[in-house]
Amino acid sequence: MILALKTDGPVTNMWLYENQKTIRPQAEATWESGRDLADQLLGRIQDFLKQHSAGLNDLKGIIVFSGPGSFTSLRIGHAVASALADSLGIPVCGAMGSDWAETARTALATTPAGRPALPHYGGEAHITRPKP
Predict the structure, then answer these.
(1) Which residues, including other chains, have CB under 8 Å from residue 26's CB and lie 6 or more apart?
(2) Across the chain, which distance is largest between two alpha carbons, in Å?
(3) Chain-wide mean pLDDT for the chain?
(4) pLDDT, position 20
(5) I need a labelling partner for 75 at 20 to 30 A (CA). Which of 85, 119, 126, 131 fits?
(6) What is the 8-class DSSP label of residue 58?
(7) Cβ proximity of 61 and 89 under 8 Å
(8) Spatial distance between the Cα atoms of 12 and 7, rounded to a whole number of angstroms
(9) 125 pLDDT above the threshold of 70
């Protein structure tokens, strides 16, 4: 089972694919996460899997939309996806563009476990610079 996450803004999407070659997801969930994504994401993933008679240990890979999008939303989504994949010993892969899910699912076959997925913000991150 492959978990797909898209956390590029105030609305979060999740999909479940039977395997890397499955074209259409077998389940999907969408919710307005707003500014609560960090508090909600892991619990929502667990609830989503449970609703579909699955658990974290049933995951064989995680794919994530890499951007562009909101700095904070992408960062949270990638951090959770990468940490979850690392703890389960499964690969995580990110991709951009309109066909991101297909590209990332295909790349899972050659992506080693333990390598994090990195977001692409589409520009410089607008964060406060450290004071000298």
Answers:
(1) 16, 17, 18, 52
(2) 52
(3) 92
(4) 73
(5) 131
(6) G
(7) no
(8) 5
(9) no
Q: pLDDT-based confidence at 127, cuts 50/70/90?
A: low
What count of residues does the chain have? 132
Sign of the torsion angle spanned by Cα atoms 106, 4, 16, 88:
positive
Residue type, 122: G
What does the block give as tokens for 127? 């964060």
**DSSP designation for 3:** E
Q: Hey, what are 61's tokens?
A: 């890979």
Hey, what are 116's tokens?
A: 């994090």
130: preceding bond cis by omega (within 30 degrees): no
Q: How far is CA 128 from the centre of its chain?
A: 26
